[in-house]
C-alpha cells in the first residue's frame, strides 16, 4: 500500500482451472495504472492499482543520482517483480518509458523485517544508514530508524506514496544530515566545540555500544515519550534511575552506571529542533502494555502534534516528570527530563561513563536545570505546556 493499492497474494492469484504457470504470468496489464489476475471476470477482484505520483517520484529519485530499492516482506518475489515490470516510468537518462524493475538497484522482496532488508543493503553496498530513506505505509517499520538510523517517512490511511509525502521524507532526510557531527573517538579533547548536556543511568551493554560511537535504544525499558535516550539535568536523579532500570528491565544483578552526555558540536545542537511538551498522559506511550504497532503509531502521531506546535522532526523533547517513590528530591515536586531520539543520538551525542567518585563529585555540585536553558537552547514552549507549568505552581520556570 505504498507503491500500489492491493496485495499480491500468491495464495489467491493464479488459482483455478484457467490459471497458468508460473504464477506471475497470470498478471495482466489493464492500463498504465491497473493490473489484475487475467482469469475469468469473476476473479478480477484480484486487482492492484499503481498510485498516481509513484512514477514521477521514481524518476525524480533516479534524476538526483540516488539508488532505488524496493523492500517488501511479500512472499512472492516473482509476482512483485512482474508487477514492477508491467508498470513503467520515464528513465531520466533516455527520457523514454521503461519498466520500473529494470531501474531498481536493490530488489529486497522476501519475508523478513525491514531491518533485515536495510542491513543487507548496507552490508552489500557499504552505504551509510544515514544516507537511506524508507517510505512505508506501516508505522511499525520505523524500527529502521530506531535500530539503524535510516530516515523513515510514513504514508497514512492507505493513500499510498504521494508527491507531498515524498518531499516531506526528503526534507526530513536533509534536516537529519544537517545535524550530523563525525564521531572521532571517546576523548573529549577531540571535539573543539563540544557542549555538556546532562546525565543518564544506563545498562552496561548499552554503554559498551555507545562508547564505540554507535547508537542503541533498548526497547525493553519503559519509554513514555517513545524509544529514546532519556537524560536528566540532575546527576542524583540519574543515579536513582541507574538502579530503577534494573527492576524495570534488566534484573537486580544487572550492571548499570551513570553517564555524562555531551554533544560533539554545539552548533549542530543549536540547529536541532527542541520542544517542551506538557506532562499529559494522553500524549505518552505505554510500550510495556501496547503492541509494537500501537507504539509506533503513537510516535508518528506525537511527531504530527509537535509539528503543529512548530517543531519538525528530528527534534529533542523536554518535559517535566512527576515525583516517584524514593527520589532524592522533595516529595511531590517535578523534575526535568530530555528524550533524545535515535537519529539525533547517532548524529551528535557522546557518552562518557562516570566513575563512582566522579558521580559523587557531580552530585555535590550545583547543576543547571534544563528549564533555565529554554531561551539559550531555543526550546519551543507551547501554550499547553505553559498552562501545565502554571497548573503545578512552577512559576519559577521562565519562558
Q: How big a fraction of the residues is strand?
A: 15-25%
Q: Regarding quaternary structure, how should these chains be classified?
A: single chain
Tell me the strand order in the biggest sheet. Answer: 1-4-3-2
Mean pLDDT: 94
According to DSSP, the number of beta strands is 17
Q: How would you describe the shape?
A: elongated
Give a quick account of the main beta sheet: strands, pairing sense, barrel closure: 4 strands, antiparallel
Gyration radius, to the nearest Å?
Answer: 24 Å
Q: Strand-and-helix sequence, N→C? A: EEEEHEHEEEHEHEHEHEHEHEHEEHEHH
List keywords for this structure.
399 residues, alpha+beta, four-stranded antiparallel sheet, four-stranded mixed sheet, 12 helices, 17 strands, 31% helix, 20% strand
Topology:
Elements: E1 4-5, E2 27-29, E3 34-37, E4 47-50, H1 54-63, E5 69-72, H2 77-86, E6 88-91, E7 96-99, E8 106-109, H3 114-125, E9 133-136, H4 143-147, E10 151-154, H5 163-178, E11 195-203, H6 204-210, E12 229-232, H7 235-250, E13 256-263, H8 266-271, E14 273-276, H9 292-308, E15 315-321, E16 335-340, H10 342-348, E17 349-353, H11 356-364, H12 383-391
Account of the protein in words:
The protein is α+β, with helices and mostly antiparallel strands and 399 residues long. The chain is 31% helix and 20% strand. The protein contains twelve helices and 17 strands. Strands 1-4-3-2 form a four-stranded antiparallel β-sheet, with helices on one face. The model has no long low-confidence stretch (mean pLDDT 94).
Amino acid at each position: 500500500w505504498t507503491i500500489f493499492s492491493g496485495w499480491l497474494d500468491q495464495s489467491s492469484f493464479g488459482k483455478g482451472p484457467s490459471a497458468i504457470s508460473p504464477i506471475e504470468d497470470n498478471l495482466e496489464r489493464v492500463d498504465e495504472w491497473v493490473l489484475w489476475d487475467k482469469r475469468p471476470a469473476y476473479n478480477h477482484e484480484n486487482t492492484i492499482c499503481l498510485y498516481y505520483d509513484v512514477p514521477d517520484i521514481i524518476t525524480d529519485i533516479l534524476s538526483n543520482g540516488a539508488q532505488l530499492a524496493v523492500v517488501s516482506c511479500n512472499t512472492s518475489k516473482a509476482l512483485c517483480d512482474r508487477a514492477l515490470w508491467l508498470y513503467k516510468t520515464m528513465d531520466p537518462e533516455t527520457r523514454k518509458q521503461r519498466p520500473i524493475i529494470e531501474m531498481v538497484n536493490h530488489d529486497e522482496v522476501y519475508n523478513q523485517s525491514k531491518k533485515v532488508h536495510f542491513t543487507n543493503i548496507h552490508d552489500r553496498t557499504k552505504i551509510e544508514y544515514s544516507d537511506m530513506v524508507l517510505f512505508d505505509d506501516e508505522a511499525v517499520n520505523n524500527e529502521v530508524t530506531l535500530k539503524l538510523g535510516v530516515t523513515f517517512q510514513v504514508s497514512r490511511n492507505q493513500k499510498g506514496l504521494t508527491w507531498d509525502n515524498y518531499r516531506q521524507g526528503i526534507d526530513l532526510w536533509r534536516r537529519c544530515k544537517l545535524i550530523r557531527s563525525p564521531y572521532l573517538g571517546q576523548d573529549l579533547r577531540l571535539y573543539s566545540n563540544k557542549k555538556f548536556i546532562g546525565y543518564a543511568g544506563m545498562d552496561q551493554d548499552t554503554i559498551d555500544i555507545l562508547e564505540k560511537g554507535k547508537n542503541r535504544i533498548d526497547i525493553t525499558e519503559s519509554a513514555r515519550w517513545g524509544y529514546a535516550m532519556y537524560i536528566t539535568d540532575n546527576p542524583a536523579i540519574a543515579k536513582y534511575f541507574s538502579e530503577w532500570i534494573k527492576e524495570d528491565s534488566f534484573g537486580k544483578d544487572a550492571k548499570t552506571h551513570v553517564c555524562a552526555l555531551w554533544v560533539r558540536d554545539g552548533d549542530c545542537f543549536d540547529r536541532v529542533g527542541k520542544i517542551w511538551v506538557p506532562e499529559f498522559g494522553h500524549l505518552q506511550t505505554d510500550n510495556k502494555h501496547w503492541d509494537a504497532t500501537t507504539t509506533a503509531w503513537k510516535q508518528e502521531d506525537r511527531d504530527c502534534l509537535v509539528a503543529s506546535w512548530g517543531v519538525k522532526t528530528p527534534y529533542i523533547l523536554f518535559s517535566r516528570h512527576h515525583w516517584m517513590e524514593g527520589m532524592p528530591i522533595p516529595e511531590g515536586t517535578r523534575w526535568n527530563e530530555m528524550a533524545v531520539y535515535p537519529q539525533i543520538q547517532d548524529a551528535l551525542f557522546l557518552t562518557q561513563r562516570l566513575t563512582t567518585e566522579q558521580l559523587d563529585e557531580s552530585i555535590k555540585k550545583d547543576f543547571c536545570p534544563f528549564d533555565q536553558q529554554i531561551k539559550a537552547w531555543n526550546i519551543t514552549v507551547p501554550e499547553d505546556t505553559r498552562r501545565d507549568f502554571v497548573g503545578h505552581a512552577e512559576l519559577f520556570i521562565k519562558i
